[in-house]
Amino acid sequence: MEIIIAATKTCQHRPILEKVLQAAWLPYKVIYSEEHPEFFEKHHLKHSPLLLVDDKIESVGMPEIDKINELKARIKDISERRTSTRDENHMIPKNIGTEPGLVEVDVTWGSIQSITAAQKVHTVGELEVYNHHNKGWPIIDARKPNTSGSVTIPGSINIPYTELVERMDELDINNPSIFFCNGPQCPQSSTAIKDLLDAGCPANRILYYRGGMHDWITLGLPVQQI
Prior knowledge:
By secondary structure, the chain is of the alpha/beta class. The chain has helices at about 15-25, 35-45, 65-75, 125-135, 190-200, 210-220; strands at about 5, 30, 50-55, 55-60, 95, 105, 120-125, 140, 150, 155-160, 175-180, 205-210, 225. This is Rhodanese-related sulfurtransferase.
């Protein structure tokens, strides 16, 4: 659902409407008549502010609280309350120029995943991943290669989530494996875990690193080129 506030820059009600939408956890963007007159001409807009939802005018001026509640009810998934998906997005945080330690993060892609991939499967963080690696235990990169951004956690083994069940015999039978993908909005590793459990893999042999490459990179931890 795309929510747009169409307004002039001098509209006194526009900041109030923004606060109302923010309080309702409703994502939106603002289009100003001074910057995009073609948008106003296309929709025959003559008032400010206007609330448009999926290219349809929902309210002229400040909307009633019933309209805000209706919009809230139409959004069932928290992922739909996020910033709208960009036309060109990137899953992996990217370095900004040559400045070390600064990265650009695309917050618009994917669907927010639960902190728990499945019942009885423990979720771990970076410290556990680090200690796991030091023990020489397996870390599985469950991403498809075309979603990897050409980097991974050092020492990890790539087995795409779509192949894991048929390649279960490659997993360590003596020690648990940590599974990760691109981060909290990426479903690849959680899907892999559910598929493995359905195929009979014991839950105590599975650990879930939900932070994935997103958290790993934004915390400045080392990566390995693929």
